[in-house]
Amino acid sequence: MTTIGTQLKTSKRRLVIHDSLAFLVLLAITAVLLAITLFLFRSFSAHRAEFARESGEEGRLALLQHRPHDAIGDLRTALSYAPNERSYELLLAQALGDDGHLDEANNYFLNLWESQPGDGFINLQLARLARQLQKPEAAIDYYRASIFGSWNGDGITRRREVRLELAAFLIAQKQFALAQNVLLVAASNAPANANLSLSFGDTLLEANDPDDAMKQYQKAMLEDPRLAITYEKAGRLAYTLADYPHARDYLEKALRESAGSLGALPGPEGDISTLLKNSERLLVLAPDTATTRSDRITRILGNRTIARKRLDACIIQTATPQTSLETLKSRWTAAASNSTRAALMRDDSNQDLNRSLINDTETETARLCGAPQGDDALLLLLAQRAQNR
Fold first, then answer.
1. Which domain holds residue 309?
2. Which of 341, 358, 353 is nearest to 293 (CA)?
3. pLDDT digits over 90-118, tens only?
4. Is the pTM of this model over 0.85?
5. Does residue 339 have a pLDDT over 80?
6. How many angstroms separate the most distant Cα atoms in the chain?
7. Scanning 106, 120, 344, 368, which has the fewest C-beta atoms within 10 Å of its C-beta?
């Protein structure tokens, strides 16, 4: 019995050892299989991530190279490997818009906007799409949201850029007052930089705000006193505003700082050298720049002589009598008694009468006898500016 019992115990021990070994073997096999599975899964995930990264990069480069159609395919592929990757979604929405799929791009950005309504970039893209979709009010709202939204990076610079873009849009919409407000806020927050001030000045001019444009040009002069283009822009603007003393000073500085290189550059009113000469001559001719009453009257009398010679020459030049010229001649005759120095000194209304006669003469003779030259051309300029006041 003892021997049998011992054998039974030995058999059980062997069975337990066998089962234990079998379990350990199975456990080891399972562990190996699990390790292989994890390796394969990680390898697959890594390949998916790599495919997504490569496709996303190709899409980004295609956008930079202005190939939005190609970018759409690459970015869709990237999103198939990396769903809900925000950077790829933003790029895809942008590519759709650039490729003309405006409604789809708008919907895409709106979905992104719902999760981040304060994102500056998304609001900017929605503003641009609203412009293309002919929704100006929505575009303005999105621009404003973009300005006050969050930006990853240099928010100060990006907000200034958005303000400038909004101002350009408002100018295109003829909403000049709103554009002026946007520009003045942007300019007040801008760092001291002559080129920036020049840019603000140019845009304020487009927004029909010459006074603030001049202030920006003057600010640029302080920021960079040697920048010739600043004096040219300020000189031209002063000339159009009939501020001939400043026009002369700024144009002189423009020529000096450019060593004469800007002198022959054309502009809407002529090159700088010509404008400078005109400004100097207008300081002699223009009654409004006179410093005394007596000087103003002297100028009016001198301008009368110039305009009357122009009228007489035009009458001779015309082949057939012109009623308007005959009417002007009759007005000159009627005004003779009110056109002496004594009459002009005695009554300012006589000054107004003579200035009106000079202006009408230069305007009508230019219409009938062609563009005038010399002092007549400058008197015509004064007449035109008087009409536009």
1. 294-387
2. 341
3. 777 777 777 778 888 888 888 888 888 99
4. no
5. yes
6. 164
7. 368
Residue found under tokens 């000079």:
358
3-state secondary structure of 267: coil
| Mean pLDDT, residues 123-130 | 94
- Say how many domains are in the chain: 1
**Of 337, 331, 338, 321, nearest to 359 (Cα)?**
331
CA torsion through residues 244, 245, 248, 253, sign: negative
Residues forming a β-bridge with 150: 119
Token pair for 366: 């230019």
Burial annotation 71-102 (CB, 10 A radius, 16+ → b, else e): bbebbebbbebbeebeebbbbbbbbbbbbebe
The C-alpha torsion from 348 through 334 and 376 to 362, rounded to 10°, is 100
Looking at the domain assignment, is residue 309 inside a domain?
Answer: yes
Q: Mean pLDDT across the chain, nearest whole number? A: 86
Q: DSSP class of residue 288?
A: G
Residue 313 inside a domain? The answer is: yes
Please check whether residue 366 lies inside any domain of the structure. Answer: yes
284 is written with which tokens?
Answer: 């002699």
Question: Is 109 contained in some domain?
Answer: no
The rounded distance, in Å, linking the Cα atoms of 26 and 168 is 74
Residue 147 CB partners (closer than 8 Å, separation 6+) = 120, 159, 162, 163, 166
Name 268's Cβ contacts closer than 8 Å, sequence gap at least 6.
236
Q: Considering only CA atoms, which of 152, 158, 200, 197 is closest in space to residue 179? A: 200
d(CA 194, CA 26): 79
